[in-house]
């Protein structure tokens, strides 16, 4: 019963209390727009540093010069001539560096130039060619080198490129400026000449190994790359000055010729001809007595006589 009374009082109190309006929900505050965060850029891996022309030339020289000096020694049998030929070839490459740098085989370009210079016919007229250089110390190397030097220059070069350097036949023919059949014929003749004197080298593999050993036994050193570059630049300056001097001399000679040349046509004098019927001119002879008397009379009267002589009849 107490519970029932309490429920009734609670219901009456709830009915008497004013109904409370529900509070409006608070509107959501606008959030400030966030600035877009920069996306992290991928870090590129550091690429190879570009070489300067001088650095690229020095790298090519360090890579190819020692082997080229040894190969050129096998072609000529002269150490100093081999070093000079390789240096001249690299100097020519430095003068034409943009062309050589883009070549598909820069070492081949320098090798062809060095071989041409070393095997040039005018090398025999140089003073150093009159004095022979000391041969290799090993008897086998000395015999092989003498056998190579007895070959014709073209056969020797073909044998060196094919069996020494290891080029194939088309590349050998292209570098020697010959057709492929001609290069093959030279190679066969060179091998036959070597095998006739050294039968142990009839096998091309053995010949290749012996050529490599002969070239390696010679302690040949090439000059430093900066010295080669400076030498090439100095030779280029000398050629430029010589060309300028020749041009100036040619211009001066042309100007002198124009200055002293005749400005009008002068017909040539016809040769003299003898005229017939005219007596020859003779020199005056001695004066007669009458002429001497008249001369003396004229002299006397001019000095002491009248100022004017009048003719008078005799």
From TrEMBL:
Biological process, per Gene Ontology: DNA-templated transcription initiation
Residue ranges of the region described as Disordered: 1-51
GO molecular function: DNA binding; sigma factor activity
Ranges of Pro residues composition bias in the record: 27-45
Keyword Transcription among UniProt keywords: yes
Protein family: Belongs to the sigma-70 factor family. ECF subfamily.
Listed name of the protein: Uncharacterized protein
Taxonomic lineage of the native organism: Bacteria, Bacillati, Actinomycetota, Actinomycetes, Kitasatosporales
């Amino acid at each position: 019963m107490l519970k029932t009374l309490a429920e009734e009082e609670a219901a009456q109190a709830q009915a008497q209390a004013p109904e409370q309006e529900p509070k409006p929900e608070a509107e959501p505050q606008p959030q400030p727009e966030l600035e877009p965060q920069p996306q992290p850029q991928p870090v590129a891996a550091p690429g190879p540093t570009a070489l300067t022309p001088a650095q690229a030339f020095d790298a090519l020289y360090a890579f190819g010069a020692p082997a080229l000096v040894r190969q050129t020694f096998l072609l000529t049998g002269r150490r100093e001539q081999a070093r000079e030929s390789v240096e001249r070839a690299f100097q020519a490459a430095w003068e034409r560096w943009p062309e050589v740098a883009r070549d598909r085989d820069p070492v081949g370009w320098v090798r062809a130039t060095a071989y041409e210079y070393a095997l040039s016919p005018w090398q025999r007229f140089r003073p150093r060619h009159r004095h022979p250089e000391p041969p290799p110390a090993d008897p086998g190397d000395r015999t092989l080198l003498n056998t190579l030097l007895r070959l014709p220059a073209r056969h020797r070069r073909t044998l060196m490129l094919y069996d020494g350097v290891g080029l194939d036949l088309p590349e050998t023919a292209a570098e020697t400026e010959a057709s492929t059949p001609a290069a093959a014929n030279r190679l066969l003749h060179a091998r036959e000449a070597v095998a006739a004197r050294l039968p142990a080298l009839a096998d091309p593999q053995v010949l290749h190994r012996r050529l490599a050993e002969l070239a390696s036994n010679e302690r040949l050193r090439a000059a430093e790359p900066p010295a080669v570059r400076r030498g090439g630049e100095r030779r280029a300056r000398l050629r430029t000055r010589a060309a300028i001097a020749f041009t100036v001399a040619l211009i001066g000679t042309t100007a002198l010729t124009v200055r002293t040349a005749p400005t009008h046509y002068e017909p040539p004098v016809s040769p003299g001809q003898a005229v017939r019927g005219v007596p020859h001119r003779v020199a005056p002879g001695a004066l007669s007595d009458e002429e001497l008397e008249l001369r003396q009379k004229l002299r006397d009267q001019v000095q002491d006589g009248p100022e004017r002589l009048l003719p008078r009849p005799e």
